[in-house]
Every structure is written in C-alpha cells, then in structure tokens.
Amino acid sequence: MIKIFSALLLMLSSTFVSAQKKITYFEHIAPIIQERCAPCHRPGTAAPFSLLTYEDAAKRAKMIGRVTGTRYMPPWKADHLYRSFANEKRLTEDEIERIKQWVADEAPRGKEPKSGKVRNTNIAASPAKAADAILQVHRPFIVAGDLKENFTLSVIPFDFDHEPNVESIEYISDNLKLIHHANFGIYAVDPSIDISRDTVSINANNLSTYATRLTQLTQNLVYYNGWVPGSTPITFSKGLGFKMPKHGVIVLTNHYAPSSVQKTERSSLQFYFSKTAVERTVNTLSIGSGGVGEITPSLMIFPNEVKTFHIRMEIVEPLSLLYVWPHMHLIGKKFTAYYSTAAHDTVPLVRINDWDFNWQEAYKFKKLMKIPKGAVLTIEGIYDNTAQNPHNPNSPPMIVFSDGLMGTKNEMLSLILVYLPYKEGDENIDL
C-alpha cells in the first residue's frame, strides 16, 4: 500500500512539474506583456527598451522576473485592497507566478504564431478621423544633456467662434521618449482679458514672475487630465463630454526624463469634436492647493518633520465620479481620500501608501461612483521632510510650504474629481 501511495505521489509530482514546464512565451507570457508592459516598452517612448519580440523579453528574462516579482513593475501606486480601478496596471498573483516559472525554466519560446511580435497596438492612436483642433506649445523645449530632470509649465491660449462639443482629447509629443508624464488643465478665461500674448513656457520651479498672471488665467477650470506612459486617448462615452470654452487657455505641465544628450521636444493636444450635443457634461473640481477647500493646518512642513494635513468638505449636491486624480509633490509620503455619510459609513476612494511623484495617475472607477448629498469628503496627506526621505529635494531639509502653484520643491495637497451631476441608477453604469 505504501509503495502504491509513493508511486502515486511520484506520478502527481511528475505531472505537476510537467505542467509547470508548459509555461511558454507565446502562449502565456506574450499576452501579459501585450497588456501590461508593451504600452510603455515600445519604440518611441521613454521606456529604456522595447518588449515587442520574444528576443526582447528573453534576453531580459531574469530582470523581468525580478521587477515583476517585487511589483516594482509595472508601476501601480494605488492600494488595490482599498479600492480597485478600471485602469489598474498591477499584475495578478497568477501572472507573477507564470513569469516566475517561465524565467526558472530559462524562458522557453513555445509555438510561434504567424507574427512573432507582440502587437504594437495603437496605444496612443488617434480616432479614425483627423483632429478638429490642434493646440500646440509655442516653441520646442530644449532638454540639456545633463542627466537632470526638467519640469516645465506652458500656457497655450485659444479662441473659438463657438463652444465645440469635446468627445476625445489626445496628448501628442514629437519626442515622446523624453516625456515622463504630463498634466493639463483647460480653463475658461473672461472675454475681457487679452490672452494673445500668453504663450509662455517656463521652468516649473521659477514661477514667481508669472504667478499673479497665472492665477488670473486659472480661475475657471473646465477640465483636467494628463498623460502617463501607456495612456490611451481620453474618450468619453456616448452622450458624455464637455464644451470647449470659446476663450481660454491650456496650462500644460511636462515632466522630462533625464537625457545624456541635448534634445528638443514640442507638445500639443489634439481635440476631436462631435456634432452631437453633449447630453451630460463632465465637470472637474479641484480640491485643495489651488482649488476649493481648506487645508488644515496650513500646508507648511518644517525641517526634520513628518506631518499630516487634512481637507474636509461637505458635498452639497450628489455626484457621480468618473476619475480621481491625487496630487502631491516630492516629500509627499501617503495620500488617502474617502467620504463618510450621515449614517457613519466610510466609503474608500483612493489610497496611496508610498507616494511617488514620478508615478501619478488619474484613477478611473469601474462604475460611476456615487457620492451622496451631505457626505463629507476627507483628504489626508502625510509629508516627510526629513533627511531620511530619499525624495527630499533639499539637503539639509528646508522649510517647505504651498503656494498653490506647480513648483516641485514646494508642496501641494490636492484631489481632482472628474464627475457628473448624479442621476438615479448611475452607480450601475460601467465605465
């Protein structure tokens, strides 16, 4: 009996090992790379190498196993146990295990399909029609070959003879390999204000000379979003969208990756308009630094201090959220947002336990997320202004405060909501 049992165990073990050895690139690994890696790791992007072929992946197999096993890659900062999102990039445990087994088996190739490449899909492809409007930064930015990061703020003024219905927006760069990420806000400007000369591009750390004017131009936020590696064009579902202001500005902030040689880059936004009227207008609300709501205590962090700040705001009309976009700067440590109801229920929105300025994201809900009237929205930010913080830009640490602008060495605490006025049944609508 013991011999029979031992034989069965040996057979099961052999079957298990055999099954493990069936993990191959084309059958199991390529689909993961297609979905999770190729949006960034393809020619023309800021990623340091492409992963579109078996050869690309196989020669880096050990590194791929290492960075996926530690969840360093693909980057996804939101705590999925707090709230999961529709645009989640994190690998599942099963996907990580598949990669681990593939690496352990020395990256077997498997049966190759007709095309051996991972599809270089239209990750940043435009809609089928030509853009209706292209709004471009007025001049290229020169990235010095000094291996330093650069942060710029550009103002792009625009005028239309009507208020077009926006159905899609695409961020475009003529040198996408330099762009780490980009954020943009669309602002309506009072018609009495002349914006024709507001074609500005400046270092985001040197805003003081333009701060007053920038504040004047950014009083009425219409829409806010951005681009990170792997982003797709922003496209609204049928009937949703917003009207482009007739007279306004785009404020675009670019984070440039370090470069060892001098290069130039010029960004633009392509807009696609619809003749169909927008049935439900997508709105944007900026809460915190540069927006509504009071940060308590005042956002000031002294040297060698770890400090927590809050924003609490009552929701006066019910909302249906599409996205939330958290924002802090370099010494941000942890970001949390949630709302509480009159019944003392706490509903999580987003939590980032280890804030990283380099990996910011607009988090898209799986379904429209209702926030009821009377709910209290709470935002909590923790900042680490100590020498032990490797992201601290000052050595030794210096006093850091908020001026509501984008200078990276100062701080911000904000949450941008992209939302609709709530309608009955919204919480059942998939995004």
Automatic annotation (TrEMBL):
GO MF term set: copper ion binding; oxidoreductase activity, acting on paired donors, with incorporation or reduction of molecular oxygen, reduced ascorbate as one donor, and incorporation of one atom of oxygen
Signal peptide feature range: 1-19
Domain of life: Bacteria
KW Oxidoreductase (keyword) present: yes
Entry annotated with the keyword Oxidoreductase: yes
Keyword annotations from UniProtKB, A to Z: Disulfide bond, Monooxygenase, Oxidoreductase, Signal
InterPro entries for the chain: Cu2_ascorb_mOase-like_C, Cu2_ascorb_mOase_N_sf, PHM/PNGase_F_dom_sf
Protein name per its UniProtKB record: Copper type II ascorbate-dependent monooxygenase, C-terminal domain
Phylogenetic classification of the source organism: Bacteria, Pseudomonadati, Bacteroidota, Cytophagia, Cytophagales
